[in-house]
Amino acid sequence: MSGLRQFFGQPRSLVGAGFLLILLVASLCAPLITPYDPNSLEFGPFMPLSAQHWLGTTALGQDIFAQFIYGARLTLLVGAVAGLIATLLSVTFGLAAAYLGGRVDEAINTLINVFLVLPGLPLVIVASAFLRGGGVWPVILVISFTGWAFGARVLRAQALALRERDFVQAAVVAGEGPGRIIFREMLPNMAGLIAANFFGAALYAVLSEAALSFIGVGDVSLVTWGTMLYWAQAKGALLQGAWWWVALPGLGIALLGTSFALLNFAIDEISNPKLGRSNVKLPARKKPAPGAGVGNPDALLSIRDLNVGYLTPGPTVRAVRDVSLDVQPGELLGLAGESGCGKSTLAFAVTRLLDPPGAVLGGSVRLAEHDLLNLSPEELRRVRWKEFSMVFQASMNVLNPVLKIREQVYDAMQAHGVTDKQKLDARARELFDLVGIQASYLDAYPHQLSGGMKQRVVIAIALALEPKLIVMDEPTTALDVVVQRQILQEINDVRRRLGISIIFITHDLSLLVEMSDRVAIMYAGEVVELAPAHQLYAHPAHPYTQQLMNSFPPMTGPRTRRSGIPGKPPSLSAEIVGCPFFERCNKRMPGVCDVKPLQTFPVAEEQTAACFLYDPTVSPALKENAIRDSQHVQMEVSRESAHSANLN
Ligand SMILES: Nc1ncnc2c1ncn2[C@@H]1O[C@H](COP(=O)(O)OP(=O)(O)OP(=O)(O)O)[C@@H](O)[C@H]1O
Ligand SMILES: [Mg+2]
C-alpha cells in the first residue's frame, strides 16, 4: 500500500504511467475518439492537416490520426506480451541456474551463451519470414524467444550474489525451503532488476516490430506504428512533404520508450528502500543560540545544539535532538543508552559519514580549528584520518579480502603524503605493536586473521596518522568478552600514551564507567545526563541513569533479580513535549515533567541532568513526593523478588 502511495507520489512515475494510460485508453476507445476506420480508403491522398483530418491522410487516403491510435493497440500488445514472455523466461532460467547450480547451471549457461551470440534481428527476420500469416503473433513469439538471454544472464549474476548474502544464508540455516527462499528472500530483492528487464524487453519488442515492419517483413496489411512507417517510406511521404506521416509513429515509439524508462526508475526506487528519495524538504538549519558554537574554549571537540534527522517519506525521524557535548584533549568520553537512542547517528554526523536520508538539521561541530559540518569534500579528505578517525562495529568488514594487510595499513598513510617505504614499514610495525599483533601478520590476507585481530588492524589503521580524536562506535561488540577486554585495555593504554581523545559508544554501561573519564547518557535522541564516570557510578542523578544502572548486575554483593526498565522509548518521529522519559520514569511529577520544555540542570560539580528533579523552580514538596513514591514501589518490588527467591 505504501509502495503504491510512494509510486504515485513521484512526478516521474506519474508522467510515465500517465502517458502509458492515455495511450492505452485512447487505443481501446479508438472508435469513440475518431469516426474513421484506419483502413478506409475513402479520402483523397495526402490531404493536409485540417479540422476533419487532424493529421492529414496517407497516400492511399486513410486518416493518419485514426491509424495512429488504432495502431497503438497492436504496438502495445507486442510490447506487453513479448516483454512478459521474455521476462518470464529470463527469471526462470536465471534463477534456476543460480539456485540449482552444478550441471543445471552449466546447461542453462551454455544455452544463454548460444542465444547471446545469435544475432537477434537477422534471426527474427528469417524466423518471421517463415511464419508469415497469423497476424502479429509470430512476431511476438519470435521476439520473445530471441530476447530473453541477456536478461537471464544479468538475473543469474544477481541471484548468485544474493545467494551468498547473510540474510539468504540465515534463511537456509533456519530451514526454509527452496521455494520460500527464492520467492520470499531473493525475488523481492531483484524486483528492480526484473522490472528493468521487462521494460527493456518490451521496448526491444516494440522497436523490433517497427524495424521488421519497416523493412516489409511481417504482415504489412495490419495497422501498427511499424507498418505506418513502412507505408510512409514506400509511398514517399517525405518527398510529398507529408512529414507528419513519418513523425507521428516515430514520436509515439520515442515517447513509449521514455515512459518505460520513467516507470523503471520509479519501480527501482520503491523496490530498493535505500534509493527512496524523501519528499520532505530539508528544514533550514536551526540558528545556533548566541554564544553557542563557542563552547568550552579548551575543548578539542565541541558539539553544539546538534540536531540530526532521517528524512523518510513519513514524518522526519529526529534521532539526535539538541545535543551539546565537549570532549577535552586526551579525554575518553563514554556514550551509552538503549538501542535506537541515536548514538550511532550522533557518531555518523560528527564524523561526516551520515548518508541520506540522514541529514544534519541544525547545530555545529568544531574540532580544533575545523568547522566539521561545513568542510568541503576536499577539506574533509585532508582532515579525516589525520585529525580524526573512526572505528565502527562492523569495521573489520572494511578490510579488502584480496589485498594484504600491509597494503591496507599503508593506504591511509600514503593518502596523506607518507610515501617512503621504510618509514611506512617502521610505522606499520609500531602500530601493530601498539595494538598487540605480531608484525608478521602484515603480510597476511584478512581471511588469515581472527575477528579480534581484524578489529585490532582496523584500530591500528585508525591510529596510523595519530589523529587528535577517534570516534569508536561499539568497536568490540562483535568479539568475545575476553578479546574485548584486551582490546579495550590496549585502546586505553594507547590513548594515555599518545594523548588522543576518544568518544566511545557502547550499550555496556559498567564497562564505560570503568574506562571513561566522563560518561554521557543518551535517551530518545537527547543527552539526559553527563558526569565524571566515578560520579555517575556513585551518584547517578537522572532516574533513567539510575534505572539503567539497576538493570546491570552489581560487581560485588549478593545476586539479586534485575528488573530492566519497563516500557518503550517514545517514537522519534513524534514531537515530544516535556521529558521523553516521563512515561517510564519512577520519579515522575505529572503536571511538571510532561508539560514544561525540557532543560538541563546542574546537579553537582561537572554533573548535569535533563531532569526537573534538579529544577530549582519546582517545589521541593513535589520532588520529595515523587522520590518517596518511587522508594515505596522499590520496596514492593524487592519484597516480591525476595518472596519469589524463597519460593525457588
Ligand atoms: N536510515 C534510517 N531511516 C530512518 N530512521 C533511521 C535510519 N537509521 C536510523 N534510524 C532511526 O534513528 C534512531 C537512532 O538510530 P541509531 O542507529 O543512531 O541508534 P543507536 O543508539 O546507535 O542504536 P544501537 O545501540 O542499536 O546501535 C532509531 O530510532 C532508528 O530507527
Ligand atoms: Mg548504534
Overview in brief:
This protein is an alpha/beta fold and 648 residues long. 49% of the residues lie in helices and 11% in strands.
N-to-C span? 51 Å
Over all CA atoms, what is the radius of gyration? Answer: 34 Å
Question: Could you report the average pLDDT, rounded to the nearest whole number?
Answer: 84
Bound molecules: adenosine-5'-triphosphate, magnesium ion
Number of helices: 23
Query: Could you say which structural class the secondary elements and strand pairing correspond to?
Result: alpha/beta
The largest sheet, given as strand count, sense and whether it forms a barrel, is: 8 strands, mixed
Gross morphology is elongated
Strand arrangement, major sheet: 6-7-8-3-9-10-12-11
Tell me what portion of residues adopts beta-strand conformation: 5-15%
CATH class of the domain at 70-262: Mainly Alpha
CATH superfamily of the domain at 70-262: MetI-like
The stretches of 5 or more residues where confidence is low (pLDDT under 50) are 278-294
CATH architecture of the domain at 70-262: Orthogonal Bundle
In which range does the helix fraction lie? Answer: 40-55%
Describe this structure in words.
This protein is of the alpha/beta class. Among the domains are: 193 residues, Orthogonal Bundle (MetI-like fold); 35 residues. The chain has 23 helices and twelve strands. The chain has an eight-stranded mixed beta sheet, with helices on both faces. A hairpin with a 2-residue loop joins strand 4 and strand 5. Helix 9 packs antiparallel against helix 10 and helix 17 crosses helix 18. About 3% of the residues have low confidence. The protein binds adenosine-5'-triphosphate and magnesium ion. Magnesium ion binds next to helix 14.
